[in-house]
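Dear colleagues,

I hope this message finds you well. In preparation for our joint manuscript, I am sending the tRNA pseudouridine synthase A (Methylophaga aminisulfidivorans) sequence together with its predicted structure, so that both groups work from identical material. I would be grateful if you could confirm receipt.
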Amino acid sequence: MRIALGVEYAGTDFCGWQIQSHSRTVQEELQKAISIVANHSVEIYAAGRTDTGVHALNQVIHFDSDSIRADRGWLLGINANLPKDINVTWVRLVDAEFHARFTAVERSYRYLILNRLSRSAVHHKRMWWHYPALDEKLMQAAADQLVGKHDYSAFRASECQARSPIKTVDKISVTRHQDCIAIDVVARSFLHHMVRNLVGVMVAIGDQSKPVEWAGQVLRSADRSKGGITSPADGLYLVDVRYPEEYSIPSVSGFPVLW
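The corresponding structure tokens are as follows:
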């Protein structure tokens, strides 16, 4: 049987998603917990890899097993063997054609910024604290230049292993609620550090260090050295992954923000 799971995790104390020999990772913790419940070793596959410090509300994974368990048994059994910063939220039996990564048709990320003079004890490692004043309207004007099908080489990390820098970004929206700014980015797939690099450019325009037209100039340059900083991992969340309707994969029920 092929089983899909929805997973949420706080990425603060993990060295990213992918198993590494020297560090604690989300994949390793999940594989250990699932293998205990399945009573055999399993290998899991995810919708996408997240970096050190990046969080997830609805990371989708799948694994294969011959063990018979009710959905409730899988969910409660796996969670009982997971640390407090990882949790399975739903379980679905899927057919063998389903693949958590390759069947996905859309991925949604949200980046959170705390924009005020004082730092936050509550939101530490959950938002990027950026104290210079940000103009969300300027940030949206910058974002509008970055939507569409483009060569995103200027927003690509040097260690990115993607075959092509050509991606299609369907949506970038910037919203503010009091001291909090949320940047939502939706696309089928992303380059390594792409969202964090997009945010870096938008913030430089939002605090008026750069003019609005700079966003388009960076994009057209296809040169990472022409871009802005890579924003911290703390504020980034993999919010949701969408699949064809026939798989009935649940969507996330809420966003990691206070409105």
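For the figure legend, we might mention the following. Helices lie at 26-38, 71-80, 136-144, 194-206, 214-221. The chain has two domains: 2-103, 106-238.

With kind regards,
E.M.
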